[in-house]
Amino acid sequence: MATGTFAESGADLELVGIHKRFPGFTAIEELNLTIPAGSFFALLGPSGCGKTTTLRLVAGLEAPTAGRILLGGNDVTDQKSFQRPVNTVFQSYALFPHMTVLENVAFGLRRRKMADPLEKAHEVLRLVELDHLGGRRPQQLSGGQQQRVALARAIVNRPALLLLDEPLGALDLKLRRQMQLELKTIQEDIGLTFLHVTHDQEEAMTMADTIAVMNKGRIEQMGAPQELYELPKTSFVANFLGQSNLFTGPVVNTTSTGISVDVAGQKITVPIDRAHRTSGEITIGVRPEKITLHSRKPARDAGVNVLGPGQVIDVSFSGVSTQYLVDVPGAGNLIVFAQNMTFGSDVQEGDKVWLSWTI
Ligand code: ATP
Predict the structure, then answer these.
(1) What does pTM read for this prediction?
(2) Å from CA of 59 to ligand 1 middle
(3) Is the pLDDT assigned to residue 22 strictly greater than 90?
(4) What is the CATH superfamily name and number for domain 244-358?
(5) Which ipTM was obtained for this model?
(6) Is 176 a pocket residue for ligand 1 (Cβ < 6 Å)?
(7) Nearest residue by C-alpha to atom 20 in ligand 1
(8) How many Cα atoms within 13 Å fall on the side-chain side of residue 73?
(9) Which CATH number fits domain 13-230: 3.40.50.620, 3.40.50.880, 3.40.50.300, 3.40.50.720?
(10) Which atom of ligand 1 is nearest to the CA of 62?
(11) Atom of ligand 1 nearest to the CA of 53
(12) For residue 102, is it left (φ>0), alpha (ψ between -120 and 50) or beta?
């Protein structure tokens, strides 16, 4: 993506003790978060968890029941929507069909009577690599191009914060993946603060510096994508970001390095620094790609967990990998991805297998 002369720095966003109650329903409960200036922050969660409500509070389209919203250190809680230096890109691009692309982008600048609206609009169109299509109307563009016009229109007046509400939701999968990378590059080029709302975990992982996983109006966990994937603190986060095999069992042994749980009569160990509790029942999560399948029982070496035998009850091929579903009596159905296969494509439904993974 071209780097133009467009350089701007975003502002920090702070949400302090935000609550939002609608009549008979609490949508947001005690939300606290700080988004550093210039970062790409994703709010990720299932439908109804409160993502859009959070965005609308920041945009000034809803007022919080309690709490404060600070932008660049200024309290904007009581400011009207149009007074806030914040723009939004929606899933429906909301472009004006009777205007050209250039006029669409210049519209907001003209309304604010800013100098050189067409030159500024052209500069931003160059940034999103659409300057050659400025004379077209929105309906003469592809979905991805329309999305970039919407983005250009939202950044042309240099807001301190850009809100993105499922902005790629209307695109097909291939274009969505391409636009994810483009959006991320543009964000890095212009240095604005982006707050992106999505229910697509892959999208959040690809684009964001920091992800907050929301569940029922609260933030369940916040961190860098890899940290959330590798060290989820709850079963909800483990399952929302990728797939996870979860085992729950009583603690049977604790050492200075590991904690062992009884799963269907077999001992499964996790490093002590990954355990959030060291007694009673605990839940352990294992990612499907960490597991290796074996046709014979493997040695229970130090540092390796072994579970089985189980029976392969489903094999599905997705092009990139093969997914196996293995029923281990007492432990449930486990998902295994094929990368770590020891006997590759020979595994069939009905086969008896053991599973192992490094602790
Ligand atoms: P989605 O991904 O489906 O858009 P979301 O995470 O963005 O979901 P919100 O739109 O923030 O969810 O809604 C959170 C909850 O608040 C939902 O249960 C919703 O029904 C409720 N809600 C939202 N707006 C109102 C309103 N004006 N009055 C009452 N309840 C509302």
Answers:
(1) 0.85
(2) 15
(3) yes
(4) Nucleic acid-binding proteins (2.40.50.140)
(5) 0.95
(6) no
(7) 48
(8) 0
(9) 3.40.50.300
(10) 27
(11) 11
(12) alpha
